[in-house]
């Protein structure tokens, strides 16, 4: 078998990240290997090489194993979500909204991670990527964890409500009134938020009793 790679000083050839990640066997063998998470994710080279590799998002995110293995791995929350590259690479990847947000494991795995809010909500990409994604509302807002976790999170009011996309996207979402307004936490968290009056009340209602009243 012929494989491309880079020769070191001893003249030995090793497979580079561009060859390994673009290999058809990558998703079927590497992702199925127990060592992938224990060695690769804990390696100092993981964040600098794998996450910065163009092939990472195109191969790993499009792999059938991503949702079944990657998201269900205990290492995902402890290593990947704690990685500085998570917000800059993962959230900027085109596959994030199409694969990760549409994954059945998103609500059950990602949303149950304590790191989800501390990393994702505090990320500069939060307002530009997930909020503009059509999957964000269909998955996140329909999650049972929305009222118990998201609305009680301090980051929700400080980041989400202060986001420019809040009034244009979240308030115009069909799920907002049916789920968010019917949540027990709505009055205690949202109404007590300083951002509520400045953002929500400044949103021009399109129709309904409130529009006629104003």
TrEMBL record:
Judging by the UniProt lineage, the source's domain of life is Eukaryota
Q: Which PANTHER family match?
A: COLLAGEN IV NC1 DOMAIN-CONTAINING PROTEIN, PROTEIN CBG01852
- Under what name is this protein listed? Uncharacterized protein
Supply the source organism for this entry: Elysia chlorotica
């Amino acid at each position: 078998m012929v494989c491309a790679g880079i020769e070191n000083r001893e003249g030995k050839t090793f497979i580079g990240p561009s060859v390994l990640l673009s290999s058809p066997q990558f998703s079927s063998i590497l992702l199925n290997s127990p060592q992938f998470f224990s060695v690769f994710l804990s390696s100092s080279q993981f964040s600098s090489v794998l996450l910065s590799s163009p092939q990472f998002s195109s191969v790993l995110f499009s792999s059938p194993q991503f949702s079944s293995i990657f998201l269900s791995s205990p290492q995902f929350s402890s290593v990947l979500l704690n990685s500085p590259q998570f917000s800059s690479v993962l959230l900027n990847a085109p596959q994030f909204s199409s694969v990760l947000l549409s994954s059945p494991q998103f609500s059950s795995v990602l949303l149950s991670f304590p790191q989800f809010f501390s990393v994702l909500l505090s990320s500069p990409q939060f307002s530009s990527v997930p909020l503009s994604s059509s999957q964000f509302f269909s998955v996140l807002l329909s999650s049972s964890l929305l009222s118990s976790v998201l609305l009680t999170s301090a980051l929700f009011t400080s980041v989400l409500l202060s986001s420019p996309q809040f009034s244009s996207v979240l308030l115009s979402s069909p799920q907002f009134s049916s789920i968010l307004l019917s949540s027990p936490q709505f009055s205690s968290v949202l109404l007590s938020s300083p951002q509520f009056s400045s953002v929500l009340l400044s949103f021009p209602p399109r129709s309904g009793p409130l529009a006629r009243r104003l």
